[in-house]
Structures are given as structure tokens and as C-alpha cells.
């Protein structure tokens, strides 16, 4: 089964599916959001809205462990995640899609592992799934590489933080990619992300950042995002 964890703006993919059924999964970490299970291009798909119904949970309050555990429990072997991001490079523009190959973790307060009672050190040298990244890269016009910086949010960044992230090699900045990618690796689920650039990051952008700007770009690119995922699923 292929899992899709949708951030802001891709709930529409469910409407393309056949025989949609919904499930809430119990996990040791609490309940999952409502997952829609359906068939698309003959494949079994499980769509999970990351923020739960009505975008209820902000990035730092998402129950990432319940989300990933629930996906594993229903038999998901591969996850395509979507994440809204700000761009640190003028050449990567609002509306672009970027498939990250690595990340830098600046989150602070999140439950980020399933291994609290056992000493396990997973290898995460290459945190994103090689095969799944290639399917996404072949499926549409995307920026094929980039380093994703994850912040704790929910605030946007200061100018000094963005300057630091750039110096460290970051290309895009978001609030929802971590610990999701780590938890997926811990449960041996192949995971890749489509980062949708919704804005230039603070201070890269000539104007003040607003959440309306983020939603506006996401809204405009929804159809293309669904197309990209739908194409990748056929591979
Ligand atoms: N910063 C952090 N997270 C984001 C941004 C940003 O500029 N845009 C969308 N998510």
C-alpha cells in the first residue's frame, strides 16, 4: 500500500480515488487522523491529512508517532509526503516543487523516536528513499535535490536564522517534515517528500511573510501537486 501524508492543500486527491473507505487507527500513541483508503491507478492508497480534520493541529502539536505508526499498522510500505516550505534561494521560486535529498533538524520539543526504552541507533545518512525520490523526479517538473531545514514553528524565522540556515547548506525551510521522515525510517517505511515552495523565506522575501500568502500559493498549485503524485503512483 502507498501512503500519502498531505499537508496544506491536497485533500482533493481522495476525490480521484475509487471505493473510498475511511478509518481511524488506534495506536500506542493515540488515535490517528481519519485515513481515506481507496484505489488509484489500480494501487491501494492510504491518504492521511497530517494536521487532522480542519487543519486542527499546528506543526509542533501534530502526533507524528501516531500518524506513522498508524500507516505501518494498515500496511503502508511507501509514503509520499507533501510539505509547504519557504525557499532560501531566489532561484527556487514560489510555486516550485522540490524533492529534498537531505535534512537538517532544528525542531525542539517533538516526540521524535519510537525507541524510548531500547537503545537503537538507526542509519539515516540518506534520510529519503532513493527509489521513491526518483519516481517523483521522473513524474513532473521538479527541483530534484535540496536540503530541507525543519524548524519548530509555529512562528516564521528571523532574518539571522535564515542567514544561518543558508550558511549551513539549507535550501528550503518548513515545520512539518521532521520527525516524520525519521519515524518512517525507524519503522522501515520508504519515505520521500514533495516540498511545495509557498514563499521566499523571511528576509529573502522583499515583503513581510503572511500565512495568507502561503495558502494562496498552495491553492494555486494544488492541481499540479495532485497531478505529480498521481503520475508517481503509476510507476
Ligand atoms: N518557514 C517555515 N515554514 C514554512 C514557510 C517558511 O517560510 N513557508 C511554509 N512553511
From TrEMBL:
The record marks 157, 211 as: Important for substrate specificity. It is an enzyme of class 2 (transferase). One of its GO terms (molecular function) is S-methyl-5-thioadenosine phosphorylase activity. Pathway: Purine metabolism; purine nucleoside salvage. Although this enzyme belongs to the family of MTA phosphorylases based on sequence homology, it has been shown that conserved amino acid substitutions in the substrate binding pocket convert the substrate specificity of this enzyme from 6-aminopurines to 6-oxopurines. Catalyzes the reversible phosphorylation of S-methyl-5'-thioinosine (MTI) to hypoxanthine and 5-methylthioribose-1-phosphate. Involved in the breakdown of S-methyl-5'-thioadenosine (MTA), a major by-product of polyamine biosynthesis. Catabolism of (MTA) occurs via deamination to MTI and phosphorolysis to hypoxanthine. Signal peptide: none annotated. Gene3D superfamilies: Nucleoside phosphorylase domain (3.40.50.1580). One of its GO terms (biological process) is purine ribonucleoside salvage. One of its GO terms (cellular component) is cytosol. This is Probable S-methyl-5'-thioinosine phosphorylase. PANTHER family: S-METHYL-5'-THIOADENOSINE PHOSPHORYLASE. Residues 2-233 form the Nucleoside phosphorylase domain. Homotrimer. It comes from the Archaea. Substrate binds at residues 175, 199-201. CDD domains: MTAP_SsMTAPII_like_MTIP (cd09010).
Amino acid at each position: 500500500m502507498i501512503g500519502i501524508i498531505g499537508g496544506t492543500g491536497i485533500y482533493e486527491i481522495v476525490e480521484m480515488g475509487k471505493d473510498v473507505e475511511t478509518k481511524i487507527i488506534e495506536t500506542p500513541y493515540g488515535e490517528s487522523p481519519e485515513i481515506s483508503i481507496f484505489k488509484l491507478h489500480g494501487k491501494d492508497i492510504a491518504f492521511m491529512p497530517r494536521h487532522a480534520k480542519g487543519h486542527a493541529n499546528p506543526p509542533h502539536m501534530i502526533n507524528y508517532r501516531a500518524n506513522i505508526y498508524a500507516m505501518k499498522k494498515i500496511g503502508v510500505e511507501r509514503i509520499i509526503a507533501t510539505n509547504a516550505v519557504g525557499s532560501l534561494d531566489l532561484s527556487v521560486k514560489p510555486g516550485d516543487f522540490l524533492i529534498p535529498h537531505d535534512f537538517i533538524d532544528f525542531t525542539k520539543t517533538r516526540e521524535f523516536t519510537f525507541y524510548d526504552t531500547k537503545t537503537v541507533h538507526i542509519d539515516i545518512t540518506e534520510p529519503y528513499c532513493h527509489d521513491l525520490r526518483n519516481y517523483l523526479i521522473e513524474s513532473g517538473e521538479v527541483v530534484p535535490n535540496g536540503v530541507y531545514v525543519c524548524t519548530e514553528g509555529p512562528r516564521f524565522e528571523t532574518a539571522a536564522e535564515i542567514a544561518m540556515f543558508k550558511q549551513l547548506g539549507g535550501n528550503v525551510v518548513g515545520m512539518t517534515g521532521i520527525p516524520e521522515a525519521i519515524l518512517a525510517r525507524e519503522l522501515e517505511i520508504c519515505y520521500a517528500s514533495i516540498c511545495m515552495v509557498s514563499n521566499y523565506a523571511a528576509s529573502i522575501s522583499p515583503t513581510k511573510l503572511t500565512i495568507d500568502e502561503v495558502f494562496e500559493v498552495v491553492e494555486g498549485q494544488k492541481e499540479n501537486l495532485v497531478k505529480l503524485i498521481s503520475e508517481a503512483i503509476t510507476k
